[in-house]
Amino acid sequence: MARTKESEIGRMLRLCAALGLPEVAEATSYGAPSIKVKGKNFASVRGPQEMVLHCPLEQKELLMEMAPDIYWQTDHFKGWPGLLVRLGVIGDEELSLRLEDAWRFRAPKRLADEYAANRS
């Protein structure tokens, strides 16, 4: 059964809550459902079965090479720290890892440091 945009954002919010990511809020980005940390977008739903996830360029290239069935980009995203993710293929465990990485990438340094200290 295909998920809707709303259920995908719900899935992402559920995983962020399970990780204990602070300051996560549901929002929109270019009219699409998204999640932000302190006002900075770190993940958004792009279509019924895909999302955009913020990440460092080095990590983006590595993920696309390791799992091209999950991660890819269009010409629009080349050279930009955003990665396309096939939501129907990625499991919750992998998506949790990617959401945490995206949150750390976009969160203010102090907040990310506090989160890391509380996790140890």
Characterize the main sheet. 6 strands, antiparallel
Number of helical regions: 4
Q: What is the strand arrangement across the widest sheet?
A: 1-2-3-4-6-5
Helix content: 40-55%
Summarize this entry quickly.
With 120 residues, this protein is an alpha+beta fold. Helices cover 42% and strands 27% of the residues. A 6-stranded antiparallel sheet has the order 1-2-3-4-6-5.
List the helices and strands and how they pair.
Elements: H1 5-19, E1 24-29, E2 32-37, E3 40-47, E4 50-54, H2 57-66, E5 71-72, E6 82-86, H3 92-106, H4 109-119
Helix pairs in contact: 1-3
Describe the structure in your own words.
The structure is a single chain. With 120 residues, the chain is of the alpha+beta class. The protein has a single domain, classed as Aspartate Aminotransferase, domain 1 (Alpha-Beta Complex). It has helices at residues 5-19, 57-66, 92-106, 109-119, and strands spanning 24-29, 32-37, 40-47, 50-54, 71-72, 82-86. The relative contact order is 0.19.
Which terms summarize this structure?
120 residues, alpha+beta, Aspartate Aminotransferase, domain 1, six-stranded antiparallel sheet, 4 helices, 42% helix, 27% strand, globular
